[in-house]
Specification:
Blueprint: E1 5-7, H1 12-15, E2 21-23, H2 29-41, H3 43-60, H4 63-74, H5 86-91
Parallel strand pairs: 1-2
């Protein structure tokens, strides 16, 4: 994964507080412009954010973790350790608890 992320809106939990990308408020063009200028003018910042983003993705967004989470959902541990959602998930009638 290469490149730095700039995000506004729904993904700040993936970006962190300017740890793996730069955040700005949705609709704030001036702040977006300032963040873009930060990235354009600072090669070390681009490199640091890129490395951190790649490490985060490898550690938290990989196929093994996704499969483990799916298994937890299908086995019913998706609702506070109960098996409430497992029968509906297996039958295909619902993907989660009612």
């Amino acid at each position: 994964m290469r490149g730095s992320w700039i995000a506004g809106g729904g993904t700040p939990e993936l970006i962190g507080e300017n740890e793996r990308g730069l955040l700005f408020e949705n609709g704030d063009a001036d702040e977006l412009c300032a963040q873009l200028q930060n990235l354009i003018g600072d090669e070390d910042l681009r490199r640091t954010l890129s490395i951190r983003a790649a490490q985060f993705a490898n550690e938290h967004l990989n196929l093994g973790i996704a499969l483990e989470r799916q298994s937890e959902i299908m086995n019913g541990s998706c609702v506070g350790g109960t098996t409430d959602c497992a029968p509906r998930c297996r039958s295909g009638s619902n993907l989660g608890p009612k």
